[in-house]
Every structure is written in structure tokens, then in C-alpha cells.
Amino acid sequence: MSRNILITGGGTGIGRAVARHFAERGEHVIVTGRRPGPLKELADEAGVHALVCDHTEPEALVGLPAELPDRLDVLVNNAGGNTDFDADGKSDLASYARDFRANLDANLVSAALTTQCVDGRLASGGAVVHIGSIAADQGAGAYGASKAGLAAWNVDLAGRLGPRGITANVVSPGYIADTEFFRDQLTDERREWLIASTATGRPGSPTDIAEAVAFLASPAARHITGQVLNVNGGAHKTR
Ligand code: NDP
């Protein structure tokens, strides 16, 4: 029987690779995002079901369950990003507060709201997988704090879902090339440093992350919960 799998922010990058991975194996995949364009493209390409939704907005999420199947087997909280690379350099306190909160909303609050919103649909034997980041261990400003918070919150979530036979884990990527995450904000020097900091000497790919998500969402991982799985090519954790 195919499983029902919800992937937030699934129109591009890592989420898209995760969606394709499951869809190619016959699972019923639902992807969300704010921009209809990438979602439609993926829906046409991979036969997934696409929904426009902003996961930081409770008002938008309230309507989500009505669009979902009664039973949800896997939730992948992937939507997120670094909403302002200079957040910690702001001198104006109001801007600093706005940018700091935007990072927490994008990566931590969005995952908590989404999980809360679909909690009643999560089926026994199911899995929740969040996409964290190596930034959580690097002291990487508001973004790193939001991903560290996600891992901390997940420990509580795992404790709550465990008795229902549902696991909750974090996949924590290092530098992943070929996504919109860094857009044009990564200098050549910084890219070279990110690659040089790995043991494997290469950036990760969205497919590397999809494989790890698929494992944690599989029955083979049923005794793994409340954990962070680092998928970073052995990258060292200093900036
Ligand atoms: P992308 O920018 O390609 O993917 C992020 C996706 O999330 C987009 O499709 C975006 O679509 C969607 N999204 C963002 N905010 C929201 C929101 N509020 N509601 C709904 N959808 C949203 O980058 P990645 O694939 O690289 O990023 C995926 C995850 O991986 C993120 O959580 C990121 O923090 C994490 N990560 C990435 C790393 C990398 O090196 N690339 C390293 C470590 C972690 P739209 O704008 O249309 O909403």
C-alpha cells in the first residue's frame, strides 16, 4: 500500500529531491510552497499533488488539513531558509528584531505549526523528519539558532509521538549545492571553504539528503527517534 507523504517547501532544492524520491517509488506525495510556479512544474513532472501554503502563517495552515488525506504516514518539515544573512550585523534594534524573528519563523515556528496542524492525521507507524542544518552547531547567528531550536524541540516532539508509534528525527545537511538556498549570496571563496571543510571534498546534493530522509521514514528506522542525523560529508563544525 502506498503511503501518504507531505513535504513542505517541496517545489525546489532538497524538498523537490525528497518528493521525487518518494514519488518514483509509488508513494502518494503532497508538496507545498508559497510560489505556484515551481510546484506546478514538479506536479507536471513527477505526478505529485501540489498545494500553495505559507507555513509561517497560522491562518494559511488552518485550511491545510481539509486538503490532505485522512491518514498521513510521513511529514517532512523542509520549508525554510536563511531569511537575512546580515541579521546579526544590524545596528537598528527594530530591524534586528524583525530579521531575527523572521529566521525563527521560517525554520522553527513553521515546523512546529505544521506538525501541530496535521498532528491528528499522523498515523501509527509513521514518521516526522525535519530538515535541520550544520549551522545549528556552528554558532551561525539567527539562522543557526533557529535550526538548533528545531533539534531541541524535536526531542520533546519525539517523546510525545513515541507512544503513538510515530518517530521524529532531524536530518542535518552540510553545504548542499544546486538549490536556491544560497542564491547569489555565496562567494567563490566561501564555497571553496565549505567544500574544503568536508572529508569527502565535495558538496552534498539534494539526493544525498533525500536518501537520509527516506531511511528515517522507513520501517528500518522504527527504533530511531529524537535524533539528529548529520549528512555533511564529515564537515568540521567551525565556521
Ligand atoms: P530552497 O530555497 O531551494 O528550498 C526551500 C523551499 O522552501 C523553497 O521551495 C521555498 O519555496 C520553500 N519555503 C520557504 N519558506 C516557506 C514557507 N514559509 N512556506 C512554504 N514554503 C516555504 O533551498 P534548500 O532546498 O537548500 O532548503 C531546504 C531546507 O534545507 C531548508 O530548511 C534549509 O534551511 C535547509 N538546508 C539547506 C542547506 C543548503 O546548503 N542548501 C544546508 C542546510 C540546511 P517558496 O519560496 O515558493 O515558498
Automatic annotation (TrEMBL):
Q: Which SUPFAM superfamilies match?
A: NAD(P)-binding Rossmann-fold domains (SSF51735)
Q: Which family does it belong to?
A: Belongs to the short-chain dehydrogenases/reductases (SDR) family.
Question: So which domain of life are we looking at?
Answer: Bacteria
Species the sequence originates in: Streptomyces himastatinicus ATCC 53653
Q: Which residues form the Ketoreductase domain?
A: 3-179
Q: Tell me one GO molecular function of this protein.
A: oxidoreductase activity, acting on the CH-OH group of donors, NAD or NADP as acceptor
One GO biological process this protein is involved in is: fatty acid elongation
Q: Pfam families recorded for this chain?
A: adh_short_C2 (PF13561)
Q: What is this protein called?
A: 3-oxoacyl-(Acyl-carrier-protein) reductase
